[in-house]
């Protein structure tokens, strides 16, 4: 029997042999000439010369053996729609969508920006792009117009695909006004917009630049579109991270390496096999959605359940009933959803027959102990935490149950995945930390298949951002802190940058600060994430006004708070609105002028700010403390 230790060592020491074997999991139209080209660090090219197609591997390849098996079960508790698509039906829908896109002159290498809610057409559109060799760039449907505009300008899409509206928690969100505004804000002029009409906001269909999807779908109902055979290293998609520095990073992914890595992860980590049913309540706008709603389950021949709605509507038992109804075997969501479910009537879970469920996977944020223990106890099934990033595309730390049943350790997602040459590095020296010592989680060159190739259109930024941050070493920085024990288990200790996670939504504190600063009354602002029992984190804003005396006048404080909330709403969306706004007359900073967000967050969470030798003015922290205490 192979052990994790042996397999892992082989994946690091003999990557060509290891990944060459893994590559047999997918279809290659033309075999690759070389497994790895590592001649130009930090860039890596996997399966050089091989030609393949993600859509072919996800759909067409299964037609011979499982055409009548469900490929997609679509459920919306917002609209009450439930639809099933076999692999044959999925194949037909993807061909229709691809034919429509082709009729709109979309071709290989073009970008297609997908701004869609969780509807089946979003999955068809992504696969249709893959089929044509077009590069999809999915933008999370909850983003406000300025976010969308920034991504339009960066991706320069030949086509935007959107819908009349999204729906969340019973509320309809009109998309077309957002798209309208983004198009007028963006410098780049998008030639055309394809509209999927859900009939949720019908009056919007009149906008002149929109092309309605439905009539075109009818026109191309029986269309057959050949798969474009792409060289393994051609780009398949661009997905933007949430962007702490204001300008988001477009993570660019390849074709062949991604397909191989996902297929391998389905066996090594998820233990999902053809015929299994996988339910990943996440969003297609996030990497988890790309990898584990769409590509991995379909490449491996599973049935994927795509869900629009919250975990608590119509009630907190809805997900568990789906598990029963569709005999779901694997489920993958974020800890925040579990914290929400924890507050529900336990009966709701117990009433459902969960016997089909084998494992619950959780990722995206730290899995706190109370949540982990509660869900484990309530489900009585393995709960597998796993750690990764948009950049890596698949879990870099997990328990590889498909290789060896390593025992889980509370507080750790597990051990490095195949091919991830992971080390903990001293922030100051770049040296490898001893076991038990906290360091930056770093990855050696080359990154394994499936990881980002570069930053879209900006190789320099890829190198400078990720590969130059650890001193004296050319290693990839995750910008997360971690610690590794003697057995190789890694615990994640938070991030070196400042992104917060509100109810599963990643928000850059820097972006919120920028929005607040645009208000004319604001001189300076700090936004920090503060632990919140339900949402994971909540944003607290500390605002320095240009004219602090204003606050003494009656009603001014309330008025300003409302205006600031409105400013954030219009620039970033309501999800980014700070839970609390505190007014202070100065902010604590380091000598180099960096805001001490971590110290502020500590105070807000009732902890001591710790060792702060570089603070210029302790008084500023005292102010923060006083403002928190006064509730204003
Ligand atoms: P940006 O890179 O623009 O700042 P982001 O890092 O918030 O955006 P993602 O790539 O979606 O966007 O998130 C990856 C991060 O989420 C990781 O770097 C880590 O901080 C956190 N994370 C993911 N999974 C886990 C986990 N299992 N435990 C702890 N933290 C996790
Ligand atoms: Mg990140």
From TrEMBL:
GO process terms (BP): propionate catabolic process, 2-methylcitrate cycle
PROSITE patterns (UniProt xref): AMP_BINDING (PS00455)
GO molecular-function term, one example from the UniProt record: propionate-CoA ligase activity
Domain Acetyl-coenzyme A synthetase N-terminal as annotated: residue spans: 4-58
InterPro entries attached to this UniProt entry: ACAS_N, AMP-bd_C, AMP-bd_C_sf, AMP-binding_CS, AMP-dep_synth/lig_dom, ANL_N_sf, Propion_PrpE
Domain AMP-binding enzyme C-terminal per the UniProt entry, residue ranges: 511-594
Domain AMP-dependent synthetase/ligase, first and last residues per copy: 64-444
PANTHER family for the chain: ACYL-COA SYNTHETASE, ACYL-COA SYNTHETASE SHORT-CHAIN FAMILY MEMBER 3, MITOCHONDRIAL
The protein, known as: Propionate--CoA ligase
């Amino acid at each position: 029997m192979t052990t994790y230790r042996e397999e892992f060592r082989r994946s690091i020491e003999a990557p060509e042999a290891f990944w060459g074997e893994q590559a047999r999991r997918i279809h290659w139209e033309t075999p690759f000439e070389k497994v790895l080209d590592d001649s130009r660090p930090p860039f890596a090219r996997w399966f050089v010369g091989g030609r393949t197609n993600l859509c072919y591997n996800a759909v067409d390849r299964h037609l011979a053996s499982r055409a009548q098996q469900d490929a997609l079960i679509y459920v919306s508790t917002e609209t009450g729609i439930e639809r099933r698509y076999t692999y044959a039906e999925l194949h037909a829908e993807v061909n229709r969508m691809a034919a429509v896109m082709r009729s709109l002159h979309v071709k290989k290498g073009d970008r297609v920006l997908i701004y869609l809610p969780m509807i089946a057409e979003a999955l068809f559109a992504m696969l249709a792009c893959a089929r044509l060799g077009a590069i999809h760039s999915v933008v999370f449907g909850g983003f406000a117009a300025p976010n969308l505009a920034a991504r339009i300008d960066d991706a320069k899409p030949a086509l935007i695909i959107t819908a009349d509206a999204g729906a969340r928690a019973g509320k309809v969100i009109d998309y077309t006004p957002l798209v309208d505004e983004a198009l007028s804000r963006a410098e780049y002029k998008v030639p055309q917009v394809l509209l999927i009409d859900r009939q949720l906001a019908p009056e919007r269909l009149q906008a002149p630049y929109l092309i309605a999807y439905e009539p075109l779908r009818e026109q191309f109902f029986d269309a057959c579109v050949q798969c474009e055979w792409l060289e393994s290293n051609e780009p398949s998609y661009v997905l933007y991270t949430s962007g702490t520095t204001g300008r988001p990073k477009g993570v660019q992914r390849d074709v062949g390496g991604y397909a191989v890595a996902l297929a391998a992860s389905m066996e090594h980590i998820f233990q999902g096999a053809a015929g299994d049913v996988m339910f990943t309540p996440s969003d297609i706008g996030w990497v988890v959605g790309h990898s584990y709603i769409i590509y991995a389950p379909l490449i491996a021949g599973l049935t994927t359940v795509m869900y629009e709605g919250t975990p608590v509507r119509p009630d907190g038992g809805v997900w568990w009933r789906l598990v029963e109804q569709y005999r779901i075997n694997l489920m993958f969501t974020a800890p925040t959803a579990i914290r929400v479910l924890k507050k529900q009537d336990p009966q709701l879970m117990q009433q459902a027959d969960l016997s089909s469920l084998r494992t619950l996977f959780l990722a995206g944020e730290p899995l706190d102990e109370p949540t982990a223990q509660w869900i484990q106890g309530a489900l009585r099934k393995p709960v597998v935490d796993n750690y990764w990033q948009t950049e890596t595309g698949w879990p870099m730390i997990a328990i590889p149950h498909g290789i060896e049943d390593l025992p889980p350790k509370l507080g750790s997602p597990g051990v490095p995945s195949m091919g991830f040459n992971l080390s903990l590095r001293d922030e100051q020296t770049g040296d490898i930390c001893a076991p038990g010592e906290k360091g930056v989680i770093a990855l050696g060159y080359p990154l394994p298949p499936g990881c980002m190739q570069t930053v879209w259109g900006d190789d320099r930024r890829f190198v400078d951002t990720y590969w130059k941050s650890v001193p004296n070493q050319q290693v990839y920085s995750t910008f997360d802190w971690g610690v590794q024990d003697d057995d190789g288990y890694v615990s994640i200790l938070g991030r070196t940058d400042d992104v917060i996670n509100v109810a599963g939504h990643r928000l850059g504190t820097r972006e919120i600060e920028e929005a607040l600063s645009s208000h004319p009354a604001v001189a300076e602002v700090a936004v920090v994430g503060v632990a919140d029992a339900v949402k994971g984190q909540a944003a607290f804003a500390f605002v320095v006004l240009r004219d602090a005396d204003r606050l003494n006048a009656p009603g001014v404080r309330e008025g300003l708070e409302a205006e600031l909330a409105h400013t954030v709403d219009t620039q970033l969306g309501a999800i980014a609105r700070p839970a609390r706004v505190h007014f202070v007359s100065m902010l604590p900073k380091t000598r180099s002028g960096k805001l001490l967000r971590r110290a502020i967050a500590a105070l807000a969470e009732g902890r001591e700010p710790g060792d702060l030798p570089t603070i210029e003015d302790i008084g500023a922290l005292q102010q923060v403390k006083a403002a928190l205490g006064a509730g204003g």
